[in-house]
Amino acid sequence: MEPISLQPIGIVRSPLVLLDDCPLQGHEGAPEAWIELLPGFETGIKDLAPGKELILLTWFHAADRSVLQCYPRKEVNAPPLGVFTTRSPDRPNPIGLHPVTVLAVEAGRVKVHPLEALDGTPVIDIKPVI
Q1: Residues 52-80: pLDDT tens digits?
Q2: What's the helix, strand, coil split of the chain in %, to 5?
Q3: Which backbone phi and psi does 46 adopt, to 5 degrees?
């Protein structure tokens, strides 16, 4: 099979700077964050408005891509599960899936909440919730 190539469209700007700072899920205390669009992608947010619900797809650049089993919710006393039955960021293709709400839209950037991604995380797509 041919390799797949992805191009980031933006980057997360967040107060979360360490993996240990990140909640396991957005609804578990994740902060507001900005999505800064990379040059050439700014017009893609033209019709976004506060209150809109989105699904952000990110690339967990700090993930361990060799993981095929993990402990659910970091419970090391539980039996390990196959990674494809979990939301673990450590996985062969570390794509993050984040339901968020738009708080603000400015030239070339979007403020969203809640977002449990590290500062500097590449954004690979933005999709509306329909």
Answers
A1: 999 999 999 999 999 999 988 777 888 99
A2: 10, 35, 55
A3: -45, -45
- List the domain boundaries for the chain: 10-128
Higher pLDDT, 31 or 122: 122
The pTM of the full predicted model, rounded to 2 decimals, is: 0.89
CATH architecture of the region 10-128: Beta Barrel (2.40)
Nearest Cα neighbor of 28 from 90, 89, 98 is 98
Beta bridge partners of 34: 13, 111
Give me 126's structure tokens: 């933005």
How distant is the alpha carbon of residue 28 from its chain centre?
14
Cα–Cα distance, 18 to 117 (Å, whole number):
10
